[in-house]
Amino acid sequence: xxxxxxxxxxxxxxxxxxxxxxxxxxxxxxxxxxxxxxxxxxxxxxxxxxxxxxxxxxxxxxxxxxxxxxxxxxxxxxxxxxxxxxxxxxxxxxxxxxxxxxxxxxxxxxxxxxxxxxxxxxxxxxxxxxxxxxx
Length: 135
What we know:
Layout: H1 2-20, H2 25-32, H3 41-60, H4 82-98, H5 102-107, H6 114-133
């Protein structure tokens, strides 16, 4: 049941990205181009995600435990450190250069192109490099 719930959540996420047009790197790069032909549509997608998460977390945390798990697994670390800030900076640079965030990139696999392939390949290389650095 847990796997099915994860599949449904991923399907909804990918469908939402595709319907909103956020799998199109030109739209994302248009949002990041605040000094040029700025495209504000990503703000509405982000706003919808924030509102949904805000309401969802309040409803979920009224429960004593998750529906499909034993206990809630929440991060305990609350301070900012070099790894978090450096990772966030690298994420933003990669997003700005490619126009793909990891979620939309994976949702776009059906329309695989050379730039998307390069982004996905380097993302996986980055995961492995980060894993090696943290050991």
